[in-house]
Amino acid sequence: MSPVEIGGLATGGLLLLILIGMPIGVSMLAISFLGVALIRGDTVALRMIGQVANDSLREYLFAVVPLFVLMGLLVTASGVGKDTFDVFQRLLRRITAGLGIATVFANAVFASITGISIASATVFSRVAVPEMVRHGYTRKFATGVVAGSSVLGMLIPPSLLMIVYAVLAEESVGRMFLAGIGPGLLLALIFSMAIVLLARIRPSFVFDVADDGAGYEALGAAALVRKSVPILSLMLLVLGGLYGGFLNPTEAGAAGAFGALVIAVLRRSLDGPTFWRLLVETGQITVSILFLIMAATFFSRMLALSGVPRELAELLLSGPIGPYGFILVYVVLILILGCLIDSISIMLILLPIALPVAEAAQFDMIWFGVITVVAVEAGLLTPPFGLSVYTIKSAMDDPTLRVGEIFRGAAPFFAAMLVALAVIVAFPPIATWLARL
Question: Furthest-apart CA pair in the chain: how many Å?
């Protein structure tokens, strides 16, 4: 067999192993080793796997992963998410479907200090959903809003997916963070417009009762300031230090983790056992991500040896579909995979194949990264996998709440994400203007 045929069979074999239930990282390592062995021999394959492990994980940049993960977990434990929702609830409650819009913007702000969509889904399913239901919103809409707006956690910086993309594409993490701001705000705005539109066109989808007779917690100016200070302080510390040029991404992650620890201690929401549990969870998440990155690097090198990306670029870009046809095919593939596997795994499978094609098409790689992250995040809302949906189901601990009900509530927000994706494809400066300053 030719190297290209071996690369093609390896890609198909990888998808088959994943479908039958083998762990993605193990599947990638096994397929990549077999592919290199068939192309260059066993000795080269053994030497390459050791070199990949050394090259892919020794970078100082990778310290940013556990630091931002720890910061997100500490912020979640400290109760900052509830305070953020309380502030936006107070500011937006007089607007039509104001609690839905408050949930979106509270998620957007919370995302700016967590970087993990699942953290947002967990926090706001416990904070926002009961409050919205109490004020006469349907449970379907309330859970759908939380599921939809939780995806902002992986788009608005700091974002774990942006870090993974930056590593695989060899782009600047800081520039990728900057690139997420415009699309993140755009998506929050489109979500808010969708909520207002639903409230006017299909009020039965949004509201259970016509008039909201439930009372609101009285929050004066002093209480608003007190609830706003922690999250604004963290945003200033992390984003201000990062974009002001005072801190690199790793230092910003360390400063943010320390700031989140101080807030949790001052609020007395962190005891010894809880802190140890968060450290263990941080380690587990970090190890799984780094192992997947190592496996994806080996898979990428195997594909490069086979010549599959080069042949694929020539086929797609010189054929009738052209560069933007490739974008369409790529997004559709991401959405299909989003029905089956998690976000990081989708990126690690597709990017080794797609990045060389995108470079050959002379796409702006930062813009391509934003498109990738938005499309991947849409997969959090699609059945049957829909990780955000299952996170909400688990966090709510309500036996009467069905998964299908959450999926139906999230459907308008999935459609809104597709609209946002089309706008970003049509107008690349939305994603690139800040990153290229």
Answer: 74
User: Is residue 366 in a domain?
Assistant: yes
Question: Inter-axis angle of helices 403-426 and 139-150, to 10 degrees?
Answer: 40
Indicate the DSSP class of residue 398: -
- Taking alpha carbons only, the member of 402, 417, 418 closest to residue 150 is 417
Residue 297 in any domain: the answer is: yes
- Residues 204-236: pLDDT tens digits? 888 876 555 555 566 667 777 777 788 888 888
Residue with tokens 């995979």: 337
- The predicted model scores a pTM of 0.81
Task: Count the helices and strands in the chain (H runs, E runs).
Answer: 22, 0
Please give the structure tokens belonging to residue 53.
């492990």
Q: How far is CA 77 from the centre of its chain?
A: 20
Do 120 and 107 touch, CB atoms closer than 8 A? Answer: yes
- With beta carbons less than 8 A apart as the criterion, state whether 149 and 129 touch: no
**Residue 437, domain member (yes or no):** no
As a whole number of angstroms, the distance between CA 220 and CA 230 comes to: 17
Q: Nearest 5 degrees, angle CA 216-CA 221-CA 226?
A: 95
Q: Label residue 387 exposed, middle or buried (CB < 10 Å: 0-12, 13-18, 19+).
A: buried
84 within some domain: yes
Comparing 163-167, 317-321, 332-336, the range with the smallest average pLDDT is: 317-321
Name the residue among 367, 349, 235, 208 with its Cα closest to residue 292. Answer: 349
Q: How confident is the model at residue 290 (pLDDT cuts 50, 70, 90)?
A: confident
* Residue 180 belongs to domain spanning: 3-432
Tally of domains in the chain: 1
Are 180 and 169 in contact by the 8 Å Cβ rule? The answer is no
The CA radius of gyration of the chain, in Å to the nearest whole number, is: 22
